[in-house]
Amino acid sequence: MNALPIDLDLALASLPAMLAGLQTTLSITVIVLMFGLVLSVPMALARMSARGWLAWPAAIFVMFFRGAPLLTLLYLVYYGFGQIEALREGPLWFIFGSAFACAVIGLTLNHVAFMVDVVRGSLEAVPAGLVEAASALGISPRQTFREIQLPLAMRYGLAAYQNEVVMFTKGTAVISVITVIDLTAVANAVFEQTYDPFTPMLTAAFLYWALVNVIRLCFRLLEARLNRHLRAHEATRSEGVVRAAARPPLMRRLRLAFALSSPKEQTS
């Protein structure tokens, strides 16, 4: 069986361009994740609201943008809005005329739709007793949300958020179809110039793999920092269990004390 035709010289020669494309991928990822965090929290609160005029629009937004394919959204934002004459001649054309900005808009709409359910599930996982106790102590609902519900929801939803970030990061590869020069676009350009599909695609795959594992490592460190009090509690609890197990039962201690005191009594 022949080995895969991987050209190491080509991989090294194309590495600077690949790293430049990776920088574009990373820039879009960070921007969209920031927008996602800012927009998903109020959208999740609206989705959880008992007021229909808030809950229904949020539910429709989530249902539509979660179901719409990301590639379709990018085509509509970049190519579709460009066909609207009023938009082309208006003040917003500097946004919709940029492939980078259109990629950010399309990815943000898709990402926020998924993040709403992540945030909603995390907030609903907070025990209701804590909210009731805060209300009984006279703490305002806004302060309860900011200092009790939101910090706990961050811990509860960290694993789900990590999965969403990893899937989203790999999904950014589709932005190359709207002329954004990201990592996938550079790999395609190298392939078109050299007709070697293995070397550029495997190089891009390795860089995506490295980026994803760096993200996973960051989440692992964040999780360890947020849950360090749990580890301290478990260590204290385990130490107490060991001490209790090492301590002899009450009857054995009484018998031992009686046995040690008997010779003294007999001697006296």
CATH superfamily: MetI-like
CATH architecture: Orthogonal Bundle
Described by the principal axes of the CA atoms, the overall outline is: flat
**Rounded average pLDDT:** 85
**Low confidence ranges:** 264-268
Report the span from N to C terminus.
94 Å
Q: Topology, please?
A:
Blueprint: H1 8-48, H2 52-67, H3 70-80, H4 85-88, H5 93-96, H6 99-124, H7 128-136, H8 141-156, H9 158-171, H10 183-194, H11 198-226, H12 228-246, H13 250-267
Helix pairs in contact: 1-2, 1-6, 1-10, 1-11, 2-6, 3-6, 6-8, 6-9, 7-8, 9-11, 10-11
Task: Describe, in short, the structure shown.
This protein is an all-alpha fold. It has one domain (10-226): MetI-like (MetI-like fold), CATH 1.10.3720.10.
Question: Any overview of this molecule?
Answer:
With 268 residues, the protein is an all-alpha fold. It has one domain: Orthogonal Bundle (MetI-like fold), CATH 1.10.3720. It is 82% helix and 0% strand. It is built from 13 helices and no strands. The chain has helices spanning 8-48, 52-67, 70-80, 85-88, 93-96, 99-124, 128-136, 141-156, 158-171, 183-194, 198-226, 228-246, 250-267. The model is unreliable at 264-268 (pLDDT under 50).
Highlighted features:
mainly alpha, disordered C terminus
